[in-house]
Amino acid sequence: MIPYGRQSISDEDIAAVVEVLRSDWLTQGPAIPAFEDAVRAHTGAPHAIAVSNATVALHLACLALDLGPGDRLWTSPNTFVASANCGLYCGATVDFVDIDPLTLNMSVAALETKLEQAEREGRLPRVVVPVHFAGQSCDMRAIHALARRYGFRIIEDASHAIGGSYLGEPVGGGQWSDITVFSFHPVKIITTGEGGMCLTRDATLAARLRRLRSHGITREPNEMEGAPQGGWYYEQVELGYNARMTDIQAALGASQMGRLAEFIARRRVLADRYETLLAGFPLITPGRTPDADSSWHLYVIRLTQEAPTRRAVYDALRAAGIGAQVHYIPVHLQPHYRRLGFRPGDFPHAESYYASALSLPIFPALSDAQQDRVVQALEQAVRPGA
Length: 386
Prior knowledge:
This protein is of the alpha/beta class and 386 residues long. The protein contains 13 helices and 15 strands.
């Protein structure tokens, strides 16, 4: 089986993890800031806070921006459920903004229209979470301009997008948002096993994120309500969580960062090969924009009406040993969100996209021969009997 995604672990990665295992620190040690420094150096963001996973990162980002009951969070329906659940964790109301049919990201036009209506009704969001689907950045400059006009805060869900760029700058630099979140799950661009990170240009937000990841506890005298009683002293100044990443994970992440450019280069070659090899097939290949260079976490095609059904193509690929996948079932169609009042037809572009979407394998170790096998199996599936 050729999976849709797979981690790439080198001998250097293994050695980095073994070094930590033989050290005095398995957690809360020097590997954490070393990994954070590597990501900061790549993105240009002044502050990076490593956490246990990207879902936690989204949750802590919402808390750091004081999202709570009575507030509203808007995100894209074309994403994993975590992009919306983070708002529910905080007691906020969640809503969605339909996608752009070309980029499959949050539509700026739809966002502007929804904001205009929300302003009239007194229902503006406190936080908007644009999702860089498949690794291609949203139009963050336009979303940032709307944030300044309507007063909402921005969390970039860049779980797919480390290594991508927007307007010539690395995703994660934070020029157009309050906080950016990365994911380091094994199928993502780099991996720590499980893991995530928040990045920000705001020192106050960074300090709060660090407290929130460690029970709301501080050892910084300037953050305490009382005078320190000794070197052992700490204070819990707010309710936080144990959201820490281990040094074992961080060592793997720092080692992987040394291969980020290599990973992205190979993904782009594979994406370009797909674009060429799939020419003439009854499908639509991913849309590209001049402002964003994707990290190509996913390669998503959309089947046209001339092709067999998505289920038929999916089953044929799976039978041929090709681990095709579907990203994503629109969040508002999940049973939990339907119980909150959402219905089919609420976000038609996301629903139309989902009905025909299929993710093909793309990961750095995918060989040209394996990719050719994927394309051959896809051709047999979309042109049966040809």
